Amino acid sequence: MMRPGSARFRLVVAIAVTAIGLAACSTGGDDEAVPTRSPATTTATTSASGSSTASSTPRSSTTRSSSAPTGSVPGDCTAGNCPALPVPTSSLMQGQITAGNAQQKVPAYLSSVLDDLDGTWGPWFDELGWGNPDPGRVLVASGETFRSSCTDTDDRDTVVESDTPNAFFCPVDVAADGSGQRVEGSVILPVETFVGIWTGTFLVQGPLDQIGGFQGEFTAATVVAHEYGHAVVDRIAQAGGLGPRSEPRGENAELIADCLAGNWAATVLKRHQLSIADITQAVALLQKIADPAPGQGHGTATQRIGAISLGFFGPSLGQGQPVNCFTKYWPEVFG
Length: 335
Ligand SMILES: [Zn+2]
Hints:
The protein is α+β, with helices and mostly antiparallel strands and about 325 residues long. It has helices at about 100-130, 190-200, 215-240, 250-270, 275-290, 300-315, 320-330, 330-335, and strands at about 55, 135-140, 145-150, 155-160, 170-175, 180-190. It has one domain (about 20-60, about 105-335).
């Protein structure tokens, strides 16, 4: 059972929570791709020119607590009683990119996906009285570099370039959310990498790599939704005053993000904006970036496809809901 307590938004120091790069599993153990939460005293600056506006501050100095619900009794999400994820009335941006418009269209598309995710998850958090889930947004444009406070396995800040083959959620990076409010906990999306995901050139090293056919805008959207899934978990943990050790463990930390991405994708299907080809492409990407064997951090292809399918269809080929993901991948809190 999950009921947020009064200790929400408390200072958390020196924690080791995984902040995730979706593509990390495909890069063969690139240690830069597996950042961990830094001590709250860690500071960082943005070295980018242009739009990467995040900087890091200790958790206690952020404005996050201003979004905490006040004067209301937080609701419960239990295995037997948890709100369904609402289906927004908004539409996702559509359209093909070309070499000439990619630099403008891909960032616009990523922002539209984040808007849609905010519009989907926000009302769900509202219904439970759990505050505002919107993460900060860092889109690393071509030629820019972003220095994240989430450290790599060598305890160095993670430096993200526009073509870094990864995407991240970092719980201690501060950036403006969709409404312009600076919040702690940000998604970091390297634009050139997403151009590659969209066009099918990401991680393609030869003709055989192109057989998977994982290109497509919705594949890029799925990656964003996965990172957003990490933000959802982080927001819930904070709303509930849970310590980092209560967050999903091991591969469940990744699989729950896949599952929550499936929840959101199901709302896109409900809005008649998702084709079988879109789904096939997204699944092909998951196969591409899955771990070759269990126990390596992100899950095998079978595990990852099972997770996004559970999020998408639920346990009985209906519409998957957050509670399906929580009970399966976060049993310590929701089981
Ligand atoms: Zn992840």
